[in-house]
Amino acid sequence: MINFSDIAYLKDGNERQQLAFKLLIEKKVLSGISMFDPILVGTIPIDIDIEHSDLDIICCFEDKKAFSDTLIKVFGNEPRFTVKDGVVNGVASIIANFYLEVFEVEIFGQQVPVKQQHAYRHMLIEHEILQAKGETFRLEVIRLKRDGYKTEPAFALLLGLQGDPYLALLDYQH
Hints:
Layout: H1 15-26, H2 29-32, E1 39-41, E2 55-60, H3 64-75, E3 82-88, E4 91-100, E5 103-110, H4 118-133, H5 135-146, H6 151-159, H7 165-170
Parallel strand pairs: 2-5
Antiparallel strand pairs: 1-2, 3-4, 4-5
């Protein structure tokens, strides 16, 4: 199993994974917010990204204002930087977006430990499914994503899951 807490696995990945690794290290993205336990999640770590997939980084904060202020201080000068408050899954959240060369970066924080956040749990489940189902399944997920499906709905469709795909995937047993 890949240690997703350390982005070193990206060094030996595909071209986009290697570029993501290079930019995250050079721009000190994770080290700049290390006090918030950042983890890269989403499609790039598990090799189902498409051309415009972003770098999704989740964080855990204790103090929402301190997290927001840190994001502004560290990334506020990056192209198209925005930061906003929101509520996701009933939990107060902070979401920052900006660009690093070819990647949009989204940093998402909640007062929930990162390994308990839905994005991390989805990624682990999706990774396990991809390992079990193989390359044909992975390519089918990518095809659906290129056709406009979000990741979790694409998995749900291919697996025949009913109801809310985001919740159904969390309960998936293979």
